[in-house]
Amino acid sequence: MINFAQNKNTMTFDDITGDGRLWAVKYVGETENELYKLFDQWNDVIWLRSFLEDTLKVLSVYCKRTDINQAITDTIEDSEYLQCLI
Question: Is 32 helix (H, G, I), strand (E, B) or coil?
């Protein structure tokens, strides 16, 4: 774990893989680091639906997706795969 202090924000870096190859920021006072928060969001159907509805225009232009339900399913599957890789 590495500590950094920046003005009002204090953060640490969690060694995710235990070998120094992947690190995640964890802000003081938070219970989880940012990587784990991201995985929580990517597996939360309600959060995903809200996010994807807010970004539907970008989703349709850059990802060629218009079906939010399929995008939610794909995101959850990709999240699970990525977590297994880590």
Answer: coil
Query: Which parts of the chain fold into alpha helices (H)?
Result: 34-42, 45-54, 56-62, 68-85
Q: Which of 60, 41, 65 is nearest to 51 (CA)?
A: 41
What does the pLDDT look like over 24-83, one tens digit per residue?
999 999 999 999 999 999 999 999 999 999 988 888 888 777 899 999 999 999 999 999
Phi, psi of 41 (to 5 degrees): -65, -40
Residue 13: its H or E element: strand 9-15
CA distances from 73 to 31, 43, 85 (A): 27, 9, 19
CB within 8 Å of 1: residues ≥ 6 apart: 12, 13, 14, 15
DSSP type of residue 43: T
